[in-house]
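Please decode residue identities from the backbone states below.
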């Protein structure tokens, strides 16, 4: 019993001391990076996501329920930024316009989310508008419109797979290596047993 406890403690210490492959979400690739601007910034991938994912993304279909959310307000705001850029407005004027536009969200939470996105990503939003990115795609990246793509489902699948492969299976193999074998190991063992007869 003491041997099992010591083994478990050693295993726990060794797994916390070294980072596991896939433990950091930024190693998961574009499915994680390009969910929205926050994950893109976390992984240093805003430019990649803008050029390789969001610019190529089809316009998300807006659901009837989105009409009541900040989604329509965001789309109108981004279209307004396009007009202001075309009219050679200053960045200061555009920022003031966007901050005022955020107050058009129907809930305090929507106003706060919009202002947070504008404060955090103002230069990137201007770049997206200048690139002629679809306003709905911009608003989805700002997390002001719901995502209609499957990237959030892909990230959930990745999280489950990473946990299973990197945490559960190694733990089982450490605790009972003779009982947890891959099918290839089992086939090899059977082949060796058959050839030795």
């Amino acid at each position: 019993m003491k041997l099992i406890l010591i083994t478990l403690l050693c295993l726990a210490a060794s797994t916390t001391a070294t980072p596991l492959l896939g433990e950091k979400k930024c190693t998961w690739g574009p499915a994680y990076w390009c969910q929205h601007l926050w994950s893109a910034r976390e992984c240093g991938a805003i430019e990649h996501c803008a050029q390789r994912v969001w610019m190529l993304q089809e316009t998300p279909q807006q659901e009837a329920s989105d009409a009541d959310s900040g989604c329509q307000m965001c789309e109108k705001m981004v279209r307004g930024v396009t007009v202001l850029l075309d009219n050679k407005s200053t960045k200061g004027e555009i920022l003031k316009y966007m901050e005022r536009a955020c107050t058009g969200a129907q809930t305090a939470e929507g106003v706060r989310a919009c202002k947070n996105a504008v404060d955090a990503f103002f230069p990137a939003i201007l770049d997206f508008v200048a690139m002629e990115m679809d306003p709905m795609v911009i608003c989805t990246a700002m997390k002001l419109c719901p995502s209609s793509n499957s990237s959030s489902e892909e990230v959930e699948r990745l999280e489950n797979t990473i946990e299973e492969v990197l945490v559960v299976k190694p733990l089982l193999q450490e605790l009972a290596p003779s009982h947890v074998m891959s099918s290839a190991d089992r086939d090899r063992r059977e082949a060796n047993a058959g050839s030795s007869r």
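Observation: DSSP finds ten helices and no strands in the chain.
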